[in-house]
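Q: Structure tokens for this one, please.
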Amino acid sequence: MKETSKSPPDLKPSDELSAMRRALLAWYDDGGRTLPWRVRPEDRAKGITPDPYAVWLSEIMLQQTTVPHATPYWRKFLARFPTVTDLAQADRDEVLAMWAGLGYYARARNLHKCAGVVADDHDGVFPLTETALLKLPGIGAYTAATIAAICHDEATTIVDGNVERVISRIFMVQTPLPKGKSDLRALAAALSDPTLDGFERPGDYGQAVMDLGATVCTPRSPTCGLCPWSGDCAAKAAGVQTDYPKKTPKKKLPVRHGAAFVLRSGDAVLLHRRPDTGLLGGMMGFPGTEWGPKPKDDVIRAAEPTPRNWEQSAVEVRHVFTHFELRLSVFHSEIAAELRGEATGDVAIWAPLDRIKDYALPTVMTKVLKAAH
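A: Here is the predicted structure, written as tokens:
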């Protein structure tokens, strides 16, 4: 049966929304997270202000990535590129190599591009308004709202996955995601409305509502007893917290196939640079076939980087991307050092194995290398 769209729930009275904001800020003052890029309320009281570059870097890394996984990368980037101008002047290959393992590699390309725009067009100083931030490469609605609120105390509406979960439970939003995103945003905007009585601290409020979803209003086991909005939550009152947010059932991921070739010569392997456009754009990888239907033998032979006696690995590489699962047959061979030239083209290099981490090798290609050995 086709699901019909439902009207968004009614808003709470403005005095209740104001009370909710005050309660959340009080909770954040005592229970909000301490993060390396965050300026806590007690820090602000000492005159410490957020660094837009550090905040921007963290927000780009945290897209589709957890805090524990992203934090070492954030520290590494800041140590290597202390300012946005340093990042802009860096070789893009180095940036891509340092990003390897964070996934969604278009973010790394846009990171470098954005740094260049800030350095060249803004004298190395990040614009701080939501409107200006939205004009920068790789900065979307969520990131612009977050940076503007945290670094400029602009009254923006911050909505990430954690906020969606919190809002959906407070108001028991019935429209499933992703269709319900507009309803959730409208409700989140009501809580971040600067005309509310007692409206204050937009940056802290935005971080507080994200923290609430990350640490208390969690997907499977929310700790409602610690929640400052427990008494305002319609889903808790009905005892159905974990039923929200409603979600449209996911379709089974399609499977794509391909073949990859690992050619070794002494202590080096042959790498190809992938085109800038498309998945894993600009990253290094092993030569191989296109990804799609299972390739036939003649297609596999045509993709060989050089005619060799290729041996197929017993291990098939499997890797899940956002929209499909990839299965790669891995072939490996060796070539004498004096013959390396016959396998080298415009997009190929020989990479020393003991320095393979210096190259922008995405996780799926790391799996390919492991399968070949």
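A few notes: Strands lie at 255-265, 268-273, 284-285, 311-312, 317-320, 325-334, 348-352. The chain has two domains: 14-243, 255-371.
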